[in-house]
């Protein structure tokens, strides 16, 4: 983990910084977001006891017009 990252899982949100490790339990869904920058390594393994695997995907969030309003180009 490098940078600054938030991870939400099972109703709990943790804040992680460079060097931290965050574990999302098997069968749970983790949601990740970075206020500015983060780089992480994610390791996925088969779900235990034959639980159904969920499709993993990500969406790149573009800055809103409010975020860029008033900034010099």
Structure notes:
With 73 residues, the chain is mainly beta. It has one domain (2-68). The protein has one helix at residues 65-68, and strands spanning 2-9, 12-17, 30-33, 38-39. Strands 1, 2, 3 and 4 form a 4-stranded antiparallel beta sheet that branches. The chain starts with a strand and ends in a 5-residue tail after the last helix.
Keywords, separated by commas or semicolons:
73 residues; mainly beta; 1 helix; 5% helix; globular
- Strands, count: 4
What's the number of helices? 1
Q: What is the rounded distance between the termini?
A: 31 Å
Relative helix content: under 10%
Number of domains: 1
Residue fraction in strands: 25-35%
Characterize the biggest β-sheet: 4 strands, antiparallel
Q: What structural class do the secondary elements suggest?
A: mainly beta
Helices and strands, in order, run as EEEEH
Mean model confidence by pLDDT:
78
- Indicate the radius of gyration in whole angstroms: 15 Å
Shape: globular
Low-confidence stretches: none
Overview in brief:
This protein has 73 residues and is mainly beta. The protein has one helix and four strands, in the order E-E-E-E-H.
Secondary structure: elements and pairs:
Blueprint: E1 2-9, E2 12-17, E3 30-33, E4 38-39, H1 65-68
Antiparallel strand pairs: 1-2, 1-3, 1-4
